[in-house]
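Hi there. Long-time user, first ticket. I'm pasting a complex I've been working with (about 712 residues overall). I'd like to know whether the download I got is complete or cut off, because the file seemed smaller than I expected. Thanks.
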Amino acid sequence: MIKINNLTKSFNGFKAVNNINLSIKKGEIFGLLGPNGAGKSTLINIISTLIKSNSGTVFLNGIDLNSNPNDCKQIIGVVPQEISLYDNFSAYDNLLFFGKLYKVDSTILKTRINKLLALIGLENRKNDLIKTYSGGMKRRINIAAALLHNPDILLMDEPTVGVDPQSRNQIFGLIETLNKKGLTIVYTTHYMEEVERLCNTIAIMDKGKIITHGNLEELKNQSKTKDLLKLKFNVISNEQINNFKNNFDFEITNTNNELSLFCNIEKNLNAILNYSVKESLIIKNIQQNKTTLETIFLKLTGRKLRD
Amino acid sequence: MIKTIALKDLKLFFLDKKSVIITFILPILLISLFAFAFGGIASSNKSRVIDLLLVDNDNSSESKNLKKALDSIKGIKIITTSIEKANKTVKKGNYVAVLVLKNGFQKAVLNSKPIPLELKYDQSREIEVGMLQAVLMEKLMAKVSKKAISKNIEKFLDAEFANITPNMKNKILKSTSKNNGTNTNNFIDFKMTPILKEAGKKTNFGLIQAVAGTSIMMLLFSIAEIGGGLLDEKESGTLKRLLYSPLKPKEILFGKMSAAVIIAILQLLVMFLFSWLAFGLPIFKNLFSLIILILAVAFAIASFGIFLVSIAKTRKQLSGLSSMVILTMSAIGGSMIPLFAMPPIMQKIAVVSVNYWGIQGFYDIFARNLTLIELLPRIGVLFSIGLIMSFISIKLFKKNLLNLI
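Hi, the file is complete. Here it is re-exported in full:
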């Protein structure tokens, strides 16, 4: 669906996108995660034909972006970070205008607008001016405006910035619905929770480069980060500690009757608890620190996502 | 696509009440104000340097003496030329008038006959002509006619008092030449001829100045404001969305420009209709030429406004830039001060201003009564300004495209 080869873009000598290679499959929700200034928006701007790369190629559904930008524009819909709507127009008029830009047949366009308004739950407010909408409602219209020409790929550039949690959940629901209908979604954000919740595949970007990509499990493996399970026992002898270590093949350290187990918690928790019961060990306290994208990013770059 | 963009911009414009008021109501108020103000100027008789063409058909020593005398008058600069050239340049509006010293000038002076003079003038510059006439009649003609009066008295003395001593005769002549009460007008056959076609009903030049000058200045402000919408779109992000679509950047610009031209035409039409209804400006006298000129002015000014927008990067920048450029252009182009009231150097500089071409075009229609064919050069200049500005705007817009993201 999207194939990116050796893509580079520089601004005044600064490489905003540095030799990127990516492959995004049809029907994926592909999360592009990275701190501000990582190059995510530049990459989106290149794919959305807003700017040209210095070198490399991008293919959308097999169409070369460099030689056929207009054909590619019909394949992609873009949800910009800003609410790019006319405040003095109604939601319906905004959608009608943006739909016309793609030369969508008038009757089809009107039907599509009504369907989209129903999908985002704003059909009753369609004739109200955008300036009377709440931030979350504007965000939903902002998404609908990118879908009027029925694109195959939806590029979403931080679409939940400044949105309250309730509206954010509504937007997530909308994204999942659209994805179920077969839409491929490229989702950029610096909120790891959003990527963890929504995306099948994740690429972590930093300083213009993709530093790793895959599903969450693959990223954990690639970064060699493990969940941390801390078990505090009433009493545990050195022998019991050694038995513990011999019984499991992951790293275990101990301090003051407390064991730190570096493992996949979800996979190993039952076995660990059963073993403790079997060894008559009384657990006083359990604490788990699951591996997150934040930890992976920290491990890979030595920096926090929001540094 | 251009139509879609233009219609969107027109809709946005008319939904914005503030913009509509600034575009239509404010200029009407200013036109009314200036119409009254320039009405006052029309009766002014202030002295200033005026270029006066001189055609010497007599080519005599007396006519040469007169030329010398004219040259010595403060406030008048004499330029000798042929009658054909004079007619042409005055008709074009380059000079205010031509003084023709007719055949028999010297004979008339020496024989105490009415002196044959003709002042052919640009009817659209009535105020300047009034000043010129006053200077000529009061200061210069007196000199010429006094000579004729002296000759007349000398003749009379020779005929009736042949025995009078030369000394006495000189005293009498000297005494008569000092007599300021003499009516010199009887000795001058001073013909005033408008060099252009008959205007018919008397034209109010102050009104033309007020309407043309104010309309064009306000139009520039309105268009800069409308064009500024492009920067608003940049700031709000809608421009980005337009660029995501299959639209070409120049289609966005042309769409915006089309909306600006339509609003400019509407604004000018409203201004002229108001001037007709409120002040009786004869807009139906040469309606077709007026419509063509309005189209040319609207195109030139819309392009100029979009050009200003293309060089600005932010709304704030545009605001400062447009105020500075528009006020300067309006000042030098004759929107604020009538061109004739400016020094000659300023009148020459005025041609760099789009206001100048527009205002003079309206003078051509309402005051000089030029036909459409005669108006074509001026209309051509306006369309050329529009084309050049559009071309530069497209280039700048494309160049600045990266900065818009």
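A couple of notes from our side: The first strand of chain A starts at residue 2 and ends at 11. The longest helix of chain A spans residues 165-180.
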